[in-house]
Structures are given as structure tokens and as C-alpha cells.
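Morning - molybdenum atom inputs below, output right after.
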Amino acid sequence: MGSKWKAVTAGAAGAVLSFGLAELIHGLYAGVPSVFVALSQRVIELTPGGFATRAIETLGQADIPVLISTMVIGALVVAGLLAILSLRSPIAALAGVVVLAAIAVAAAFTEPLVAPVPTVVVIVGCLAAGVAAAEFLLRSSGLRATAAAPVGDGTPPPPTMDVRSREAHAAGGIAVPRRNFLLLSGGAAVMGLAAAGVGRALSGGGGQVASAPVKLPQGSGGAAGVTHRTLPPPPAAASIEVKGMPPLITPTEDFYLIDTALTAPRLDANTWKLSVGGAVQNPFEISYNDLLSMSTRESDITLSCVSNEVGGGLVSNGRWTGVLLSDVLKEAGVSPGDVGRGSPAEQLVGRSADGWTSGFKTELALDGREALVAFGLNGNELPPNHGYPVRLVVPGLYGYVSATKWLTELELTDWDFDAYWIQRTWTKEGPVKTQSRIDTVKDDDQLERGTVPIGGVAWAPHRGISRVEVSTDDGETWNEARLAAQLDEDTWRHYVYDWDANSAGEYTLQVRATDGEGETQTAEVTPPHPSGATGYHTVKATVA
Ligand SMILES: Nc1nc2c(c(=O)[nH]1)N[C@H]1C(S)=C(S)[C@@H](COP(=O)(O)O)O[C@H]1N2
Ligand SMILES: [Mo]
């Protein structure tokens, strides 16, 4: 092993140890953010539009492993280079570590729940531990034997040491047999990884957390006119039961997940507050309990992501509990006359605890649709990854312009402000495009001759679905599908077409939906960026 590679190994082992220790402490005390997550988070935000548009909007899905491995490799490379540098100039390497400390502190300080002093102490302490470990490894490898001797004490080496170590000792190195270098490095790395693993487990990183049923305050606090509207179970007629059909209401654990947060911010409902301000007459703050003491309602609303490909799974239907956004705005003294085009309250910006923002036309919150300041999903409190304790849900708008999770602030402002994804080149207004999906037949399915139910979901939230047609000949002819009862104009609708598949061959199946205003979805194929994918979902199957 060349001396450079030894130095890299020592540096990398030190880096793993410091990150691991930091992760462990984060697990024990949430006031110290995960430095690793904080750094990765800043990388996401600094990523320029082009890459961010494709890779990052769907971070909830496949891109996390890529990001994490890039970060890990990057950290190891930097640590290795610093270790090589330290052989020539320990001072320069130390300066490099100080810069790293500053970057880590800066990244950590932008995390939502940071406790400043402990965070600085922990970051400096963990880096010092990593540097000490790397230094120890460099000396144990004999690499420091020729360097200036920082801790030589002039005493004779113990007689059990081998020759190399004796030299190292004489030159001021410490007495560790050289052949154990790899073992020691590996040991340091394993300790670091173990610490990181324990830390992750303690902080609940990754795993879903079960959430409790929504509990509304009893007796409605005596306030006049406060109501809590709940919904009956969906009528049987609103569902079509065919194998492969998604449930009409998406179970919470299957609800799609998209956000830019590597780990869901863990907010405390007892200290949470929503501030409503900007261009409003009566800015105010409201606590979780006071929000739940307002009139509440359950609403069925289909939420979808602008990144959803035609036929994709980034769409789900939830039964949300919340307060009407229009009621909250009324509290702030906002009326429809105040929010028109060009007004200082034209845009409603939602800000989350992690600094993410969304924004849409304020008038959409006041036009009668059931836009919610939501605290419940499917009867339970919001799970952490879906925005606990409170989020926005606006029927008819893609999530990126409206559905702020971990909501802490509503700000009325003019149309000039560009929210998070607008800054990254997605369109300013995000109305959900009419879409439909074939769920009961998948690409490459081998079907048996006979009746084949071609079914799935169609959605045009807030406009509703009036018609779904299915083609089995690549769009040449279209057949009327049977629609289940519309649960709500804001939700998707089940459909099925019973296809009489009586001759063998290859078939191209397609579906298209018409919204409640009589507008049929466009056949033009466009990608998700910048305003949502269009085109007909197409499935190729064989009848045997
Ligand atoms: N704070 C925050 N809220 C957010 C996002 C985010 O990245 N951060 N992503 C939005 C996007 S793009 C979508 S599609 C929806 C997804 O909500 P879900 O994960 O609960 O399905 O959340 C929205 N709310
Ligand atoms: Mo999204």
C-alpha cells in the first residue's frame, strides 16, 4: 500500500468516525441536526434548475440513494485529500478542517430545529475526534515518522515493539505496530458506522411513524357556530371492485410521497404555531389547539404531483380533516375584493418549517372550493412525512404550488414572489391536468380470451370527471367506460370497460377522460416538466 493510499485510508476512517459520532448525537438529541442530512439538503437546494427539475422533485423516490452515495463518496474524497495534504503541511490540512467545520455549522444552522450552541460544540467535537483518529492512524502507519514530531517524548520504546514502530517512536510517532494499520482504520470506520446506525435508529430516520386518531377539542370551547363536519363512509356505488383497481381512498401507508426533505422535520404540535400575515388586515398567530377549535371538516381530495408521468403513481386520494383555508383568511380580514390581479394580496404563499415555499392565486382559496389547512389524513393525525402537524391541501392544484407540508406561515403577497419550484423553472400556476390511468391491465400482460375488465382511475380535481373512454385498437375507436358514482368533484373516479377480448393477438389499450366542463384530456404527449405530463395512458397486452 503506497503512502498516499494509507493517508487516504486514515483520512477516510477519521471522516466516517466524525460523521458517525455526529449522527449518534443527533439521534440522542434532536436539537443537534444530522450534519450529513443538513449538508445533503443544502446540496439539493443549491442544485441548479436543470438537474433539479428532473432528479429532485421526485426525491421522495429513487434519487435519494444516488444523492446519499454521492455525498458519502464526496466526504471520503475530501477527507482523504486533507490527509495527504497533512503529510506535507499539517497546518494547511488543519485549516481545511476548520473550513469544513464552518461549512458544516452553516449547513446545520439552516435546519429547522437547531439548538445553536450544542450544535457548534458537537460539530467541532466530532471533527476533532475524526482528526485525532486520522492523526493516530497516520502515526501508527509510520507515515508521520519523517514528519515533524509533535509529541515525541524522548523516552526509549518498550521492548516489545517491532523495528518500524521503534523508528516511529524515536521520531516522535506513537507505538502501534504498523501491520495493524488496516485493522485500526477498519475499526475506526466500523465504530463510526455503528454510531451512525444507532443514531439513525434513534432519530427514526427513514421509517414511517404510526399516527394517532384525530382528536377534536370537546364541547367546541363554547364558540358560537363552530361545527365539525365528518363524512359518511364512501358509498359502495363510488367504487368498482375489479382486481388491480386502486382503493377509492388511498390507505395512508400507500399515499405517494414527494418532498425535498431528506428526513421529515419533526415538529411538536404543542409548540407549533401558524402565522398568517403579509398583506392582510389582521395578521395573527394560531396554535394547534386553537386551529382545531375552529370549524373543521372532512373532505375527500385527490392530490397529485406535477412530476407524475402519464400512467404513474404520484397521485393519491385522501380523506383529509382540516379547517377551511377561507375561514383562516377570514380571521385575517381578507375578503375576495382584496385579492384580485395586481393586488398586494394576489398570491397566497405557504412556508414550511424547513423553508420550502409554495404559492398560488389567493382567489382560488376563496372561490368556494374546499381548500384545507389540514391536520388529518384518513381519520388520523398527519404522519410526519405527510406534513405533521399541519399542511395545506388545495383541490385542483398540483402539490408543488399549493400543498405545503409542515406549514408554519401563510403570507399574502403580490404575484412577483416566486416559490421554491418556480425558482427552479416549473410553471407559476399549477392547475392539475385531466388524466386517466389503466390499472387493471399492465404492460406485457398475457390475457386469456373472454371478458377483460379494463379499469382504473380518472381525475380532474375540482372539475370532476364526466366521461371515460377506452380504446383497444391504439386509439382508432373508442368505447364508453362505465363510471362509478363520483365521490366528489375533487377526487378521482373509478371506471371500467368490459372488453370482449375474443380474438388472439397483440393489443394497444388506451384511456382518455373528459372533465366536468366537457373538456377531453389532450392526446398530445408532453413530459412532466414544466407544467405536468399529458397524453393518453397506453398499455400493450397480448390475448392468447
Ligand atoms: N414542505 C414541503 N411541502 C411540500 C413539498 C416539499 O418539498 N416540502 N412538496 C410538495 C409536492 S411537490 C407535492 S406533490 C406534495 C406531496 O405531498 P405528499 O408527500 O403528502 O403526497 O407535497 C408538497 N408539499
Ligand atoms: Mo409534486
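Note: The longest helix spans residues 3-28.

O.
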